[in-house]
Amino acid sequence: MSHLSRRASWLFRQILKHGKNLRNMPHPGTCCKCNYHRQTYNQCVKQLEGAEDRYRGITVDLSQLPSNITEQEFGGLLQDSLAQWRVSGKQAVWLRVPIMHSKHIVAAASSGFSFHHAEGNYSVLNLWLDSSRESALPRFATHQVGVAGLVLKEDTREVLMVQDRHRHRAIWKFPGGLSDLGEDIGETAEREVFEETGVKSEFQSVLAFRQQHEHPSAFGRSDIYVICRLTPVTFDLKPCSQEIRACQWMPLDKIIADDETAPLIRMLSKLAQHGLDDGFEKVDITCQEMKSVYKGLLFKLYHRPF
User: Fold this and answer.
1) How far is CA 91 from CA 53, 111, 123, 129, 137, in A?
2) Which of 57, 192, 227, 252 has the fewest Cβ atoms within 10 angstroms?
3) For residues 209 and 226, is the Cβ–Cβ distance under 8 A?
4) Rounded Cα–Cα distance for residues 250 and 260 (Å)
5) What average pLDDT does the chain have?
């Protein structure tokens, strides 16, 4: 098909689409943002739009880009934007890249950007602009948070114990798992205990927490493991067949005396025993909800009672 034939075909389709409103009809080759005659996107838009923060950084969400912008057009627009941000004294740039815009990561990498993190259907890249000093940009999350529930039947001095199905060794431990985003520590303990054993329980306090670096299952992060004291509300055991090999109520004395008990489990069992003997006010770390300095938000403060 010749150029004139293609032009006539395009014009006929636009007439069918727009009818008498030909004034609103876009021109082939017009800007995909504003329909200005024969302008490409980066000729019309001179700088990417972003949200500024108090640290003189700017965050740009690439979902603002039209789907048909080319890698070359984005690369040119990014270069223009970086030049303007440097002149205006910006210290850093963050790019939030939806997975469907991942083709633009190559252009960003060519401009010096590197990955900060990725999650779900997006990734985040960053670039430090202040050449007068080293980058002050924070790393992504340095720790993962796991929570275990020490579910204690005070009248019989028994604790709920489980064995993981996926461990090579059959080691008894407290039920628990990773905390979800936005989930309080006590909520994680209650949820994990119920999911693994079928026992409903109520959060009472934090007994202790463990910090471990080079944890083999933390994707290169350090690990914080919080152990909570819980009171059982139900007692029948319905262990999760996919995760749990065995589940039972076990006397504290037996746990402490068993040579196969892990050092962490033995120490925590002694802590629970001390609470039973001398009062949990001597071992508990309690939780208090308080107002945050950030308007409209609350936070949980964990501290020894006084």
Assistant:
1) 10, 15, 20, 5, 10
2) 252
3) yes
4) 14
5) 88
